[in-house]
């Protein structure tokens, strides 16, 4: 990936908010708001893979869905190639949908059981008028080959395939409209461990071949480390840290990131033995009634009184390493003091 190419944002997300009105109580008698994403801003650069990590319920999938306007944002903007998608009407979004696609976690429920693989791949080509009718069959065969299957699978139905093969077909379907940006929403979590690596390698191969940009959502940090150029860490609807992969794995700054990374196993047994795991207390708080101030303060071992009151902004600590923690300097000097 050329440096100049990598610095052009394909997506610019600014102050993105997504709230879901829900009914709560034993009989659904009360109304409440789920604050799934609360003021998230970040860029995704052309040709890169941005990994999005965080515990379950932190808002990762909602972020991916809202970027693609599958969920309409409550407020904030999502600029794709300079156009604010949140302002477009559904009809106007149709032409954008060709360029932005998603690969879901569950390959079992995303394919229409009544369509052959060939039909499933031809459909987006017809809808988005990617090529002439005559060109569709060769293009379908090429896509099937590109995802590592044999072209003779075109006449078969989804139920005839294993989970890994179905995910290959879902990837081919996402590619069928010739997109440039794909949200990969936990694309390997539903698959057998033995085939997860194959799907990751496939995603990396086709990224190069098709010039794709990815938002790669996952909770498995080892996988994120393998595939991402940059990594964003999310907690309860907020971004806590975002940086280049190497920077975030070698020098995590936010206490939440440090705790998450401490759970990633190291290949070197000597490093693994000497590592200190940080166990996070409790679970992620409820997104209906998130904690005041820093949302992570209820589980942070460095939290002080001020963390309950002030909402931390993402601050650039150099080289695009952004962190949202008002006690960062104090934590660093506390830690330097304990290691001296
Ligand atoms: N359609 C919806 N209606 C109401 N609440 C929702 C909806 N979708 C998501 N949520 C809530 O929004 C919050 C964020 O959910 P989201 O699925 O985005 O998190 P996640 O980080 O992707 O989690 P996971 O890894 O479990 O998929 C959660 O509290 C979830 O319950």
Automatic annotation (TrEMBL):
Listed CDD domains: ABC_NikE_OppD_transporters
A single GO molecular function term of this UniProt record: ATP binding
Organism domain of life: Bacteria
Coiled coil: none
SMART domains: AAA (SM00382)
Keywords: ATP-binding, Nucleotide-binding, Transport
GO biological process: peptide transport; transmembrane transport
Domain ABC transporter: 11-261
Family under the similarity heading: Belongs to the ABC transporter superfamily.
Name of this chain's protein: Oligopeptide ABC transporter ATP-binding protein OppF
Species for this entry: Marispirochaeta aestuarii
């Amino acid at each position: 990936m050329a440096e100049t190419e990598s610095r052009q944002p394909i997506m610019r997300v600014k102050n993105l908010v997504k709230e879901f009105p829900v009914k709560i109580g034993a009989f659904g008698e009360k109304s409440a708001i789920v604050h799934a994403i609360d003021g998230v801003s970040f860029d995704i650069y052309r040709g890169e893979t941005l990994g999005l990590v965080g515990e379950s319920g932190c808002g990762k999938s909602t972020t991916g869905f809202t970027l693609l306007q599958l969920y309409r944002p409550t407020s904030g903007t999502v600029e794709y190639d300079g156009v604010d998608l949140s302002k477009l009407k559904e009809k106007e979004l149709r032409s954008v949908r060709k360029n932005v696609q998603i690969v879901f976690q569950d390959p079992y429920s995303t394919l229409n059981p009544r369509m052959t693989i060939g039909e499933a791949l031809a459909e987006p080509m017809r809808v988005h008028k990617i090529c002439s009718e005559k060109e569709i069959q060769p293009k379908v065969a090429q896509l099937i080959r590109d995802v590592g299957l044999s072209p003779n699978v075109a006449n078969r139905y989804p139920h005839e395939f294993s989970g890994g093969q179905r995910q290959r077909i879902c990837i081919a379907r996402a590619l069928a409209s010739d997109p440039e940006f794909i949200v990969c929403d936990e694309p390997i979590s539903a698959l057998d461990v033995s085939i997860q690596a194959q799907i990751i390698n496939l995603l990396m191969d086709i990224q190069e071949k098709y010039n794709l940009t990815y938002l790669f959502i996952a909770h498995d940090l080892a996988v994120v480390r393998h595939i991402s150029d940059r990594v964003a860490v999310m907690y309860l609807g907020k971004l806590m840290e975002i940086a280049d992969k190497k920077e975030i794995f070698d020098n995590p700054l936010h206490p939440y990131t440090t705790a998450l990374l401490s759970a990633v196993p190291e290949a070197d047994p000597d490093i693994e033995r000497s590592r200190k795991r940080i166990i996070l207390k409790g679970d992620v708080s409820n997104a209906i009634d998130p904690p005041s101030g820093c949302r992570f303060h209820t589980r942070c071992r460095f939290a002080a009184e001020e963390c309950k009151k002030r909402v931390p902004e993402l601050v650039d600590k150099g080289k695009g390493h952004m962190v949202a923690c008002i006690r960062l300097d104090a934590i660093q000097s506390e830690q330097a003091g304990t290691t001296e």
